[in-house]
Design goal:
The complex is a heterodimer.
Chain A (H helix, E strand, L loop, with lengths): L2 H21 L8 H13 L2 H23 L8 H39 L2 H7 L4 H38 L7 H11 L2 H27 L6 H29 L1
Helix pairs in contact in A: 1-6, 1-8, 2-6, 3-4, 3-6, 4-6, 4-7, 4-8, 4-9, 6-8, 8-9
Chain B lengths: L2 H26 L10 E7 L10 E4 L2 E11 L6 E7 L10 E8 L3 E6 L14 E4 L5 H27 L7 H11 L1 H20 L2 H8 L1 H36 L3 H8 L1 H23 L2 H8 L1 H19 L6 H12 L1
Parallel strand pairs in B: 1-7, 2-6, 5-7
Antiparallel strand pairs in B: 1-4, 2-3, 3-4, 5-6
Helix pairs in contact in B: 4-5, 5-6, 7-8, 8-9, 10-11
Classes of the chains: A mainly alpha, B alpha/beta.
Chain lengths: ~250, ~325
């Protein structure tokens, strides 16, 4: 199979999986236990790493911005720079990348091993479609949890920037000034754009990882390959989608 | 971990996320959805410049509302900003609004002045008067014009100083003067040098004055002398002034003479009398006149004196009676 056919097949099977999972949406209420469990895994357990990473991304943004903006006397605008970058771009993208690493890889590994050890086949034999019990709860959970992760990433990043701006000697901007500039140059649409992006990224990641996991063929070695492929495809997808979603939301 | 705990944590987590989104929304959009109270005013401007939705409206520097909407007027001939004003604030009908720059980089607010106390308050939806403030572009273009003018002025100064090729400039002229008169200038300088050397050596009056302390002391003494003379003169003048004042008041003989008419009349009549007497004397009238003009009286007197002398000489050793008799004889 040449790479182009593989890509097209991947796109096709992902869309098929999406359609069949969407068809089972009415059964979601009956699967609420699974849904809650996925919410817990996707949202709650990812929070600490998202918070830590966002804090340092905000900090380093402020540091770099302070360094370069003080060259032309604009360092009091650090607040707006960090605020806008975090809300519109880095918050959602970093949350999505972490989600890929932590959740996407886990989904791919879990579904790939289920496939390799023929659990998926067993489910299908029992007339339990995997799209219904394995994919739908995950998709629903990521839709609910992703905005929460993204907003936390935004806010933690803002505060990280504020703390660095205050305590770095070469910047020395009070949090009041930082947040006042941030507020002056930002509107809620900026944050909303970021949340929409995060939603799109999360949904795409989970869908792609489920699809790659479910389409694993061969022995246990393929589990590792599937995970790698899932992560790589997800990361590429995040950045490609980032461009198009940003453009669409402008 | 059991299912119930999962559910609780996920629920809490989700609520936390919603709360954070809500807080962010409220913070960034000034809570405009739920604080949509107050009334609106329409402010028409030729250009809204950098003003945008959500910018502040301030009265005397205090925030009283925000820009709710910016759009072109239906006529298409001006821009309008819809201002949402705090319901507690009344804006007078003669108050004017202006777009004010808060910072150099695109931060503006609408500044409204207080207006007069007597004017009526503006109602919801009313239009507020506006005034135009110069924006940064106008200031910059003014500065550009100023720069051009300065450049022109500097150019003409440079032309005057350096010349424009045809007519010589200030420096060329100065140079010519110096070149043409270099001998004279050198001679003058030499003289100056000589004079200053002499001064330095204490030669000549000025030199001595400068170098000799005795001269200095004498000069100081002379000045003191002059000062004391001046003081005396001042006293004298003061006294004279006092006398004049005295006279002016009609006091004293001189005062009476100058200012008292009666005295003057008396004096006149006295003078007239004196003249009459002297006239008589001149004409030889009266005893004194005769005495002055008539020689016979002198001669008679001389004869009498001679006779008296003779009588005294002839007294000799005669007794008092004969003496008396001799006197009587001599006299009669």
């Amino acid at each position: 199979m040449n790479p182009l056919t593989a890509i097209l097949e991947g796109i096709g099977s992902t869309l098929q999986l999406l359609v069949s999972a969407a068809g089972y949406t009415p059964t979601l209420w009956r699967q609420r236990a699974r849904f809650i469990e996925q919410c817990y895994l996707i949202g709650y357990t990812t929070l600490p790493i998202v918070a830590i990473l966002s804090f340092f991304i905000g900090s380093v943004l402020a540091l770099q911005a302070g360094y370069s903006m003080s060259n032309f006397g604009a360092k009091q605008f650090i607040g707006s720079l960090v605020g806008l970058s975090m809300a519109r771009e880095l918050g959602p993208v970093m949350a999505a990348i972490l989600l890929t690493g932590r959740v996407g890889s886990a989904i791919a590994a879990e579904l790939a091993s289920m496939k390799v050890y023929q659990e998926i086949d067993a489910l299908e034999t029992m007339n339990i479609p995997p799209a219904k019990v394995l994919v739908l709860p995950r998709l629903a959970a990521v839709l609910v949890m992703m905005p929460v992760l993204a907003i936390i990433a935004d806010l933690v990043g803002w505060f990280g920037g504020a703390i660095v701006s205050k305590y770095t000697q070469s910047i020395a901007i009070e949090p009041e000034a930082y947040f006042s500039v941030l507020r002056r140059f930002m509107v809620f649409e900026d944050v909303l754009n970021g949340l929409i992006k995060a939603e799109v990224f999360g949904f795409a990641i989970v869908l792609v990882c489920c699809n790659i996991g479910l389409n694993t063929r061969g022995g246990p070695r393929e589990i590792g390959a599937a995970v790698t492929r899932a992560v790589v495809v997800s990361l590429i997808l995040i950045l490609v989608l980032d461009y198009f979603v940003t453009k669409a939301l402008m | 971990m059991n299912n119930a705990q999962h559910t609780a944590r996920v629920g809490l987590f989700f609520l936390l996320g919603l709360a954070l989104i809500w807080v962010t929304f409220e913070t960034l959009s000034d809570g405009k959805i739920f604080k949509d109270r107050g009334y609106t005013l329409v402010a028409g401007f030729e250009s809204l410049k950098e003003l945008k939705q959500g910018d502040e409206v301030r009265m005397a520097g205090v925030k009283i509302g925000s820009v709710e909407q910016t759009n072109l007027a239906p006529s298409g001939r001006r821009a309008e900003a819809v201002l949402r004003i705090d319901p507690k604030i009344t804006i007078k009908s003669d108050a004017t609004a202006a777009i004010v720059m808060a910072g150099l980089i695109g931060t503006n607010y609408v500044g409204i002045d207080l207006g007069s106390t007597t004017a009526a308050a503006l109602k919801d939806g009313a239009e507020i008067q506006t005034r135009v403030t110069p924006d940064i572009n106008a200031i910059m273009s003014e500065l550009g014009n100023l720069g051009k003018k300065l450049e022109g002025a500097l150019g003409s100064i440079t032309g005057a100083v350096n010349g424009d090729g045809k007519t010589p400039g200030l420096f060329q002229k100065l140079d010519k003067i110096v070149t043409d008169n270099s001998e004279k200038i050198t001679a003058t300088m030499a003289n100056l040098q000589e004079v200053t050397a002499k001064l330095n050596q204490g030669e000549g009056t000025l030199g001595r004055l400068i170098n000799d302390p005795k001269m200095h002391d004498e000069l100081i003494a002379s000045v003191r002398e002059i000062k004391s003379v001046a003081t005396d003169a001042r006293t004298f003048v003061a006294n004279a002034q006092a006398i004049i004042d005295h006279v002016k008041l009609g006091q004293g003989a001189l005062g009476a003479l100058v200012f008292d008419e009666k005295t003057a009349t008396d004096l006149k009549s006295s003078v007239a009398n004196l003249r009459a007497v002297s006239d008589q004397l001149a004409k030889g009238e009266g005893t004194l006149g005769k005495l002055l003009h008539d020689d016979s009286i002198l001669r008679d007197a001389q004869a009498v004196l001679k006779k008296a002398n003779t009588a005294i000489d002839s007294l000799g050793d005669s007794g008092p009676i004969s003496a008396l008799g001799a006197v009587a004889n001599s006299l009669f």
